[in-house]
Amino acid sequence: MHDHAKTEARQLRRALILTAAFLLVEVTGGFLANSLALLSDAGHMFIDALALSIALVAYRQASRPRDPQHTFGYRRLEVVAALVNGALLLWIAGVIAEEAWDRWNEGAVLKSGLMLGVAVVGLAVNLVGLGMLRHHHHDDLNMRGAFLHVLGDTISSVGTIIAALVIRFTGWVRADAVASFLISLLILVGGVRLVLESLHYLMEGAPREIQIPELMSCLREHPGVLEVHDLHVWRISSGMDILTAHVVLEQAVESGPLRSAMRTLLRERFGLQHVTLEIEGPEERDDPLHRRGICGP
Question: How far apart are CA 36 and CA 30, in angstroms?
């Protein structure tokens, strides 16, 4: 496991220990206070612990060396873990929303003081967890999934605090159900985004930060290039974006220096490190394949 992945794994492990430790406190407080918002927050925190565990396992497995059956190694597990974590976010959002609806209809007697105290401690714990992960959540989907779980739990804690204050000063116990329902909506939004992005990369979609038309224009306008076709760009995992393309050269242009210059362009402008360029002569330009644009058959 390289140094960057080791750092991320270490932060995930610390966040997991912190989350698991507070989970027991929050479950106990939720039952004693009879607070659905607090129990919902605890349920989400349990999913957080599971999500952090999945992310940690994915990091460890992704460091395994490639073999004849897995020529890219196991780095795609990063995206798979993110998809699983996104699905967990959707599930917990549904469970919280259902329970919130039941609590709205039934009403309940809550101990707002205990509810408030536990929620404040939970917020502090979640803020520490966010601090551990915040420098890494843009790096890859796996870490983003873990970050979204902790962020959702942080928002959940804030909602629970607000609900506890409303109940304490107004006596409106349905604030507990309202807070839970709003929490479920926020979790749902994060889960949908994570699932859609994970599916995008599992379907070999191009990295969203790379504008393919711009990339294509840069290659076609490069000195010595007549045409570019069969261009494919996809992401295996963070830091492993792949590009393959066929490049038709002008007559008498040396392929070696031009290939090197194009590789440098792709690396410096688009961050592409894994590039395969198939060089062709101008006599091949009239091949029907060359008129198919970005992707060939």
Answer: 7
